[in-house]
Write a structure and sequence with these properties.
9% strand, five-stranded mixed beta sheet, Glutaredoxin, Serine Threonine Protein Phosphatase 5, Tetratricopeptide repeat
């Protein structure tokens, strides 16, 4: 039998409640320690454990793993409020710094380890999370979008695209105060970032949103006189404040298709503001920009 190399010895051990200090807390001051809470009767545990062990071995000593059977050692899992298994915690310098529950695909397990060992390309990971969150948001999956935006912010707390996306999630849930609170936490440097400017515009529009009773006279005025562009512009403002960006843009295009420079280009300026508020990556903005380009260049 080939003797195991010293640097790979004791990377994965079975832990106990009594030995938690020596097996997890103390070693975590020099190398990240992953703790896998499992039980023999747990089917997902039998899938997760070997996959995680394989990746820990592949890391070559940059991370260690301690497996704790919760049936035999219930104390530590209780202190960490483990409600279901498998449950995984990562410790650094004696403190839990990350974790997850349930079984994950190998690619996500690798990301989990790479984050612990410092080998993750944080900017790329943030960009990928934001891209996935944006797609979820466009599909109306606000929960999925919020989860990925939050994960991106956890990796890079000043990521403007992720912060902007989270603000839009709050606004989509009619929580203007929550959105404003997030904006107030943005660094001075990022306040001028295009994504943050757009999110700020979206908050301003939402804060000025009219009630349904206030909207009815505007709808009536436009219906009675389609060329009442003042009423139509006010209707567009109201719709945008209610988050109905596509409808607001439609009203503005009625004005622009008749008079591109109406009222010192007020409708055009408002349209550009809506593009920022909706977000540069949104389908609404992309469609609106194409429509505006056809007006300007055809």
């Amino acid at each position: 039998m080939t003797e195991q190399q010293p640097e790979t010895q004791n990377l994965i051990i079975d832990g106990t409640d009594a030995g938690f200090m020596a097996e997890v807390i103390e070693p975590s001051s020099t190398v990240p320690v992953i703790v896998d809470f499992w039980a023999p009767w747990c089917g997902p545990c039998r899938q997760l454990g070997p996959a995680l062990e394989k990746l820990v071995k592949r890391a070559g000593g940059k991370v260690k793993m301690v497996k704790i059977n919760v049936d035999e050692n219930p104390a530590i899992s209780g202190q960490l409020q483990v409600r279901s298994i498998p449950a995984v915690f990562a410790f650094k310098d004696g403190q839990p710094v990350d974790g997850f529950s349930g079984s994950l695909p190998e690619s996500q397990l690798q990301e989990f380890i790479d984050k612990l060992t410092g080998e993750m390309d944080v900017d790329k990971e943030v960009a990928d999370l934001v891209e996935r969150a944006n797609k979820s948001f466009e599909l109306g999956d606000l929960g999925g979008a919020a989860q990925d935006y939050a994960a991106a912010i956890a990796l890079k707390e000043d990521a403007p695209e992720a912060i902007s996306g989270m603000i839009r999630v709050y606004l989509a849930n009619d929580d203007v105060l929550g959105a404003r609170n997030i904006l107030q936490s943005v660094t001075e440097e990022n306040l001028q970032h295009v994504a943050i400017v757009g999110a700020s515009n979206a908050i301003e529009l939402a804060e000025g949103a009219p009630s349904n009773d206030e909207m009815q006279p505007l709808f009536a005025a436009v219906k009675n006189n389609p060329n009442d562009f003042d009423a139509r512009f006010a209707l567009a403002e109201g719709l945008s404040g209610l988050g109905k960006m596509d409808q607001a843009m439609d009203e503005l295009f009625v004005i622009l298709e008749t008079d591109l420079n109406w009222n010192d280009q007020q409708a055009r300026k408002m349209l550009l503001k809506l593009f920022e508020a909706a977000g540069s990556g949104s389908e609404i903005t992309a469609k609106g920009r194409r429509r505006l380009s056809s007006l300007l260049f055809n």
